[in-house]
Design goal:
Length: about 950
């Protein structure tokens, strides 16, 4: 409000000193929730003087002083409330409303077992707000309470608040800073007192879902007693919840939904939501798996996909495969959804929906949950919000004491970091579950933010069916044993309402069991023909020797080089960056040999020119950790950016490079999910230093290295890991090459150590052009990025051939060679320089550029020149118990001539990846180079 307008309004009001306390209380209510006061008062408070750098609060002493000064000059009574209330009790009523919005969830009826011992919240009592029974029949202005009326009797308001905030739903949303979001939620919750009104048709649909959930578990328990199935019993409402969610998603225009969950209830979701044929599940229980292409996996890790019919069209559902690492599937799901959104050209998340299902102990206990929440609103990883469901059975394996599993009141408090609304709901009230499900999705679709549903339930059996839960939770399981199943509770309710008869309710259960007996799909909405969101057909059934054409004409390369070396004249680049781009112009013109950065950039340029989409993420990926890439040119004048790779030609493939959040585990898992959903894109993740990949080891172990063997999931993700010993100490030397080689088997992935710009160019192109999709692990260099010997010509690039091995390049007579040194990576150039300086013309150096799959054919060809040699050595920078020595030496033994000797030259075994002192590093490096080049007589 303008100062003059405000002054006029104040002068026309009725102030005196006796009303200062009332005004302060009104201001307190305004600070809690601006929408709780009238528009007139809100204008006054909005216009109060602001302290610089402070958006909301003003010192109360300043407020009191301002109103006291106004009151000195006025002598008229103020009308402080509507509806006949003329004292401060009106403010108390507004504070009562806010108390229920803030703390009503703490007295909500959430636990089906009634075991939660929760203290009475005094803020929710009339007495706390100085309201008495004599006030119950008085009319008060209810502010923004969405009752449909401006005023209500206190007794009616009090009852409405209890119904809305202390029933089967406990809503937490007042931590959200957006007034628009809070008002929207208040309108939805308060307009019908959080008491959903469903048609009989919807009620019957809910009952069918509960009947299916209960029926499958009982069937499995009877047919396969004692077998692990991680039963959903107690959390049965998850099935109708998910089906309601998919129906709502389809009605709102979503075309795809990706679900991620751990074990609990997974088999039930597979059969009763995604429509997996129950006979297939029964065969799996019986050990009948048919022909297996790989190792396979246990039943409760498996994924599935299907089409689900809704009134808004079919929704393609995919349940992500998940190992036992519980929450790690969350970022995988988000990555898969982002890929689908990109493919559909959707930037706001309206076409695809991520749904993640958590355990109560896991969501609070595992750090990847926080990492994934942190991704949710970032440029590189946003998906328009997700629906996160917690199957809260109040016990983690055997731990049920809250103080043992978390440090917060609720397991869902972690979600407050991204201001997600949280709806706690009693799972024995399936209509309340359906209501919050619809509410959650509608909020997600409108505000593009994460939403959490805390499905408070119980676990009827132990962690698995072989456990004895009474041993550790005796009181809980005594209560569970007597507690009726959710289906029975709801069926009885509907019978009492006259929605159906008891016989009809029983018939639903009988019909479901008949469907199981007949081995047919038991989900009415599942469509027979599943559409696939992406086409993997041309990538299936190939191995490493599949034919492809990697070549690119020299004139095309030159033209691409000119494109990537240019940015607008009015775009002021930083001086060092300008020098890099000037050098690239010279490289494109053939005036300078190409360095690593230019060759890598040309690889990307050639692919986007051919229509391939490229996505690169990492903590310094735009610039490159070692100042070599500079795919993003920052204008020094106005901080705007320009990406030459986005400006190759019209209709080119997309090029996206993002500096990611400071996370390895969640970001790598996200990119894995993206790559498994999009085979035609080149997807890359780059570690800032190679050893940072340690923080994402679970992704390598349980997804990248074994996903194809366990689940038949192809993935062409490229991993760039800076690696090399330059004296930077234990944490910034080694990318732990040995760990990746230990994971290699069954031709599951590639591990490459390219040593020239031409090699990195050809390797990147090969990963995309070759119709094969398996992970590529690359040990990328640091010092080699600007090494004078690590250069290539445009002609070398134009062939596009990646050499798995490179023979001796100097003019050495092979017949005079007495020792052959095998090596990979940076150490090659140190060996080469030392060999040249000492003129050791009887030592040949052979580079192994691809350590896995080991290039036996190329090795055999090269070794034909050295059949007379008896002395072979493997040289590496890493300690002997690390690097490639232990994992690869059998390949060398197989390749060298019979009777020849193979020895090791490198650092001795060490518990640490590298030493911490430059002097020690230099001494060790000098010694290992000398050892490798010295022929033992």
């Amino acid at each position: 409000m303008h100062e003059g307008v405000m002054k006029a309004w104040l002068e026309s009001s009725h102030f005196n000193g006796g009303n200062v306390a009332y005004v302060e209380e009104l201001y307190e209510a305004y600070l809690d929730d601006a929408s709780s006061v009238s528009d007139e008062w809100r204008e006054v408070f909005d216009a109060l003087p602001k302290v610089e750098g402070v958006d909301v609060d003003v010192k109360h002493s300043d407020i009191r002083a301002q109103f006291a000064e106004l009151a000195k000059n006025k002598h008229k009574e103020v009308v402080v409330a509507a509806g006949g209330a003329s004292d401060a009790k009106q403010v108390r009523v507004l504070q009562l409303i806010n108390a229920y919005r803030f703390r009503g969830h703490q007295n909500a009826n959430l636990d089906p077992l009634g075991l939660w011992q929760r203290e009475k919240v005094r803020d929710l009592t009339l007495e706390h707000h100085d309201l008495t029974d004599s006030d119950l029949d008085k009319e008060f202005n209810v502010g923004s309470f969405a009752s449909g009326s401006d005023t209500m009797k206190l007794k009616d308001l009090y009852a409405a608040l209890k119904k809305t905030y202390c029933g089967s739903i406990g809503a937490e949303y007042m931590h959200i800073t957006s007034t628009e979001e809070k008002r929207w939620l208040q309108q939805r919750l308060e307009s019908n007192f959080a008491q959903p009104q469903f048609s009989n048709e919807t009620k019957l649909r809910i009952l069918k879902g509960l009947t299916a959930a209960d029926g499958l578990e009982k069937y499995l328990g009877a047919k396969f007693p004692g077998a692990k199935r991680f039963s959903l019993e107690g959390g049965d409402a998850l099935v109708p919840m998910l089906k309601e969610l998919i129906h709502r998603a389809g009605e709102s225009g979503q075309e795809e939904a990706v679900i991620g969950m751990a074990h609990r209830g997974r088999l039930n979701v597979l059969v009763n939501v995604l429509g997996k044929n129950p006979q297939v599940l029964f065969d799996e229980f019986a050990g009948k798996y048919g022909e297996l292409a790989g190792s396979g996996d246990v039943k409760y890790h498996m994924g599935y996909s299907s089409d689900f019919a809704t009134t808004g069209g079919n929704v393609h559902m995919a349940l992500a495969f998940n190992p036992s690492h519980l929450e790690i599937v969350n970022p995988v799901v988000m990555g898969s959804v982002r890929a689908r959104l990109d493919r559909l050209g959707c930037t706001n998340g309206s076409k695809a929906l991520p749904i993640t299902i958590h355990g109560d102990s896991a969501i609070a206990g595992q750090g990847v949950v926080q990492e994934t929440f942190n991704l949710s609103q970032t440029r590189a990883f946003s998906v328009g919000g997700s629906i996160r469901i917690v199957v809260n059975n109040q016990v983690g394996f055997t731990t049920s004491k809250r103080e043992d599993v978390r440090s917060t009141e609720y397991c869902t408090d972690i979600a407050k970091m991204v201001q997600a609304p949280i709806f706690h709901v009693n799972s024995d009230d399936p209509e309340a579950v359906a209501f919050v499900t619809q509410l959650a999705l509608d909020f997600r679709n409108k505000f593009k933010r994460d939403v959490v549903i805390d499905l408070v339930c119980y676990r009827r059996h132990g962690h698995n069916e072989a456990d004895e839960p009474n041993a550790t939770q005796p009181l809980m399981y005594q209560k569970i044993k007597k507690h009726p199943v959710p289906r029975q509770i709801y069926a009885d309710t509907l019978v009492s309402q006259g929605v159906l008869s008891a016989d009809e309710a029983k018939a639903l259960a009988d019909n479901y069991r008949n469907g199981l007996d007949n081995g047919v799909c038991v989900v009415d909405e599942i469509q027979p023909d599943t559409k696939h969101s992406s086409d993997w057909s041309k990538f299936v059934g190939h191995d490493w020797d599949v034919a492809y054409d990697p070549a690119l004409p020299l004139d095309k390369l030159k033209a691409l080089g000119e494109s990537v070396a240019n940015y607008p004249e009015n775009h002021k680049a930083q001086s060092r960056v300008k020098k890099i781009y000037d050098d690239r112009k010279a490289m494109a013109a053939g005036e300078k040999p190409l360095d690593w950065g230019m060759a890598e950039t040309l690889a990307y340029a050639s692919l986007v020119d051919e229509g391939t989409d490229i996505r690169i993420t990492g903590q310094d990926s735009g610039r490159g950790t070692f100042f070599h890439r500079h795919a993003v040119v920052h204008n020094q004048a106005d901080a705007s950016t320009y990406l030459p790779l986005q400006n190759i030609r019209p209709e080119q493939g997309a090029f996206e490079v993002y500096d990611s959040v400071l996370s390895e585990e969640a970001v790598l898992a996200f990119e894995y999910g993206y790559a498994t959903a999009e085979p035609t894109s080149l997807v890359c993740w780059e570690a800032q230093f190679g050893d940072f990949a340690n923080g994402a080891q679970v992704v390598f172990d349980q997804f990248l290295s074994s996903g194809e063997q366990k689940w038949g999931r192809l993935c062409g993700l490229t991993i760039l890991l800076p690696h090399g010993y330059e004296g930077q100490g234990p944490e910034h030397s080694s990318a732990r090459l040995e760990r990746f080689l230990q994971l290699c088997a069954d031709h599951n992935m590639q591990v490459c150590v390219p040593s020239t710009p031409a090699q990195v160019y050809a390797m990147i192109r090969r990963q995309s052009v070759r119709p094969l999709r398996r992970p590529l692990i690359v040990m990328t260099p640091k010092s080699l990025l600007r090494h004078p010997l690590a250069v290539s010509s445009l002609e070398e690039l134009s062939t596009g051939i990646f050499h798995n091995m490179i023979d001796e390049i100097d003019d050495i007579d092979a017949r005079k060679v007495e020792r052959v040194v095998f090596c990979s990576g940076k150490v090659y150039y140190e060996l080469l320089q030392q060999r040249r300086e000492q003129e050791l013309n009887n030592v040949a150096i052979v580079r192994v550029e691809q350590l896995y799959p080991f290039p036996h054919a190329e090795m055999e060809t090269i070794m034909q020149r050295y059949q007379h040699v008896k002395d072979f050595v493997w040289c590496q920078e890493e300690p002997q118990n690390q690097g490639a020595w232990y994992c690869s030496q059998h390949h060398f033994w197989e390749a060298i001539p019979q009777g020849a000797n193979l020895s090791y030259a490198g650092r001795k075994a060490s518990a640490s990846p590298a030493c911490g002192y430059m002097s020690t590093h230099t001494k060790e490096q000098t010694a290992l180079i000398a050892d490798a080049l010295t022929i033992k007589k």
